[in-house]
Amino acid sequence: MKQLVKVHMLPTEDKTDILSVTMGKLTELRYIPLLIKEELSPEDYKIKSYQHLYFTSDEKIKKGDYAYDEFNKVVFKSGSDNPGASRKIVATTDKSLKLKSKCDCSESESIYCGKLKTEGLCQQLLSQIPQSFIEDYCKAGGIDEVLLECGEYCEYCGEEYCDNLRCKGYKDIFQYALDQNNCVIIHPVKPKLYTREHMRLSFKEGYNAAVTSINNNRYDEDYEVVKFDDWIKGNLK
C-alpha cells in the first residue's frame, strides 16, 4: 500500500545537506555532500540558506503530533487549537522533532537502539527522509509529491497484517514502512499521461466557458478545433 504525501522545504539555522543559493535572479539547490566532493564550499556563495524537508499528509492531526501550517509556512506541535490549513508531518530531515525524549532502552544519544523491528524499534525521532531522496530533490530543483510505503502493522510484533496467535488481543495499526535507518520508503509519483482527445476536450471546456462568460454565446466548434490544433503545434513536440 502507498500513501501520497506533499513535500515542503523551509529555511533553517541548522547546517543541513540542502543549500539554497541565489546567483543574480537565479535560485538553485545544492546537495552539500556533492558540493564537497566537487571541492566546493557553501562559503563560495554569498546569498545562501540551509533548508529542511518535511513530508506531510492529510491525516487527522492529534494532540502532540507535529504539523505544518501551509498558510504561514511554519512547523508546530499540535495542541488544542490548530490553524485550519495544517497538515500532519510524517517524515522530515529536522532532527529536532522528537517523538520521545530518549530511547525506550535509555540509550538517549542514539536515534534508535538497533533492535530489529520485530522486537520493537526504539524510535526517538520523527521518521527521517533518506539521503538518496535529498540528493534527487536537489538535482530536480524540488519535488512536490511522493508516495510512501505503508500498511497495517501489528502493534506487538510489527508484522504487516499479523495473524499470529501470540499477538491475540493486539490490533493492527496504520504506519509508514521504515528501513533500518528509521527512514521512510519512497516511490516517485508517476506523471499523468493524456491523449490528444483528453487535451482537446479540456481545451474545449475552457474555451467554451471563456466565450460564454464574455459574449454570452456558445463557441464556434470549427474555430475551436483550429485554435486547439494551433496550440498543439506551438506547445507540444
Keywords:
single chain; 10-stranded antiparallel beta sheet; alpha+beta; 237 residues; 10 strands
Q: What is the number of domains? A: 2
Instruction: Tell me the β content.
Output: 25-35%
Order of helices and strands: EEEHEEEEHEEEHH
**Major sheet, described briefly?**
10 strands, antiparallel
Structure description:
With 237 residues, the chain is an alpha+beta fold. It folds into two domains: 2-148, no CATH class; 196-235, no CATH class. Helix content is 22%, strand content 28%. The protein has four helices and ten strands. The chain has helices at residues 32-37, 131-140, 196-215, 221-235, and strands spanning 2-12, 18-23, 26-31, 47-57, 66-69, 74-77, 86-92, 145-154, 172-176, 186-188. Strands 1, 2, 3, 4, 5, 6, 7, 8, 9 and 10 form a ten-stranded antiparallel beta sheet that branches. It is globular and about 70 Å long.
State the gist of this model.
The protein has helices at residues 32-37, 131-140, 196-215, 221-235, and strands spanning 2-12, 18-23, 26-31, 47-57, 66-69, 74-77, 86-92, 145-154, 172-176, 186-188. The chain is of the alpha+beta class and 237 residues long. It has two domains: 2-148, no CATH class; 196-235, no CATH class.
